[in-house]
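Notes, Module 5: Reading structure tokens.

Key idea: the token line is not a picture. It is a compressed description, and you learn to read it the same way you learned to read a sequence, by spotting repeated patterns. We will look at two proteins. The first is printed below with its tokens.
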Amino acid sequence: MSLAVRVIPCLDVDNGRVVKGVNFVDLKDAGDPVTLAAAYDAQGADELVFLDITASSGDRATTYDVVSRTADQVFIPLTVGGGVRTVDDIDRLLRAGADKAGINTAAIARPEFLTEAANRFGSQCVVLSVDARRVQGDTQTPSGFEVTTHGGRVGTGIDAVAWAAEGASRGAGEILLNSMDADGTKDGFDTELIEQVRKVLNVPVIASGGAGRAQDFAPAVRAGADAVLAASVFHFGVLSIAEVKSELANSGLPVRR
């Protein structure tokens, strides 16, 4: 029996409120994270991802408070990312109630961070977030996908597929794969990106970016995703967790009801 496909709402949090935009700009308020998290737990979400999108510049104390209040309300795994730079940051998040820490920019700057985190907390607590975008005719990135930072605005020249594989080899227990081209567009997941990453990985892949309809999720799983993540379609009531799971089940994919 294959493992159930996980359906994961993502809360992009800015100064203690959930927000959503297209490609991380034109952000709209989508509500209180604690209230939304509790609603998703009740709806049957398998996990929650919580991204503090202004953590790099903002005040972390707000985040720990919101994480703590969210963890009190939900009984499903909670991954928190955004501004995680040291093992002490991870320690504080886990103590606040997170189950896993999402790491992005800090790992690009210093890949050894992934190994240090995995050695201290276990690989199951370490999620490498990869924000990938397509590049044309770039010999540096043979996969055709480049790792970006700053919400997709800054290119790194690092091949996204190779980086996902390196991250797993260094201790990341899971890859959160976000297509920056598809993010917020509601045109469907980038299956080509998912397929390429799946070929080089033996750890779970969470596909993110592009969900617009219930029918968008199954192709991402067939391309190799173990879990599917979405934000605005859930926050603004376009889709419910149950509708997505129903569509996955109707497509012959295992889900936890």
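Here is the second protein, with the sequence above and the tokens below, as before.
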Amino acid sequence: MGKTKVQEAVISLINEALPEIKNVDTTKDLITEYGVNSISIIKLIVSCENMFKVSFSDYELDISDYKTFDDLIERVGKKLDEQAGERRVIGGIEYGR
């Protein structure tokens, strides 16, 4: 799955999980620009886990690991790449070999 598709899917999740955030710019600072807190990032990560069928460790739930939404998108992309040997369809999008 390419970064663009992951980015589009994560933005969709942001809109659902954090509806108070309007006009998402994935490069802006989560805390200063959007007021995201540790509860909000965990909520978003759980949504990503459910959509993409990936798992985040307890250590990966720390908001300090995510300065921007792009950081989360990159992390999801890496997790998907790790599973790329499997052919899967998630959210109507096919990825893998």
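Summary for the second protein:
- Residues 3-17 form the longest helix (15 residues).
- The mean pLDDT is 88.
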